TrEMBL record:
InterPro entries reported for this sequence: RmlC-like_jellyroll, RmlC_Cupin_sf
Protein's UniProt name: AraC-type arabinose-binding/dimerisation domain-containing protein
SUPFAM superfamilies linked to this entry: RmlC-like cupins
Source organism superkingdom: Bacteria
Source organism: Streptomyces qaidamensis
Length: 132
């Protein structure tokens, strides 16, 4: 059986790819913080990031007005703050952050590493000044 048998019409279709391993990415340099990985493939419809917060680090209270975000905790622990109170998160916690929701994130004593996924934002466009 050839690789394409069983996938009729797929000759010109994009091919799924394994991009990495969140467990091994999260294990790199425990002292690092911020985005450890970003989805950067051209033509994508999604954005995704692997984020590490240092112990007791936080993301300030904010709302994302336009995009729903899916958050998956891969290492460490922490708290998701929301208008209905604090929610503990740990590896395996899968959180939906609906657009417009007000939230913050605080890492626990061992830090917090999580993946976020959301629809890709459209690129910025330069527009001319409106005419009077």
């Amino acid at each position: 059986m050839t690789d394409q048998e069983g996938f009729p019409g797929a000759a010109d279709a994009p091919v799924p790819r394994i991009l990495g391993n969140t467990e091994s990415l999260a294990a790199t340099d425990p002292g690092s913080a911020g985005a450890l990985w970003r989805l950067a493939e051209p033509g994508r419809q999604l954005d995704a990031n692997l984020i590490r917060l240092p112990p007791r680090g936080s993301i300030d209270t904010h709302a994302e007005p336009d995009l729903d975000v899916l958050l998956l905790v891969v290492a460490g622990d922490g708290t998701l703050g929301a208008t209905d109170g604090p929610h503990p998160v740990e590896p395996g916690s899968l959180v939906w952050l609906p657009h417009g929701s007000v939230r913050n994130v605080t890492a626990g004593e061992s830090g917090l590493t999580y993946v976020t996924v959301h629809r890709r934002r459209p690129g910025m466009q330069i527009q001319g000044r409106p005419r009077p």
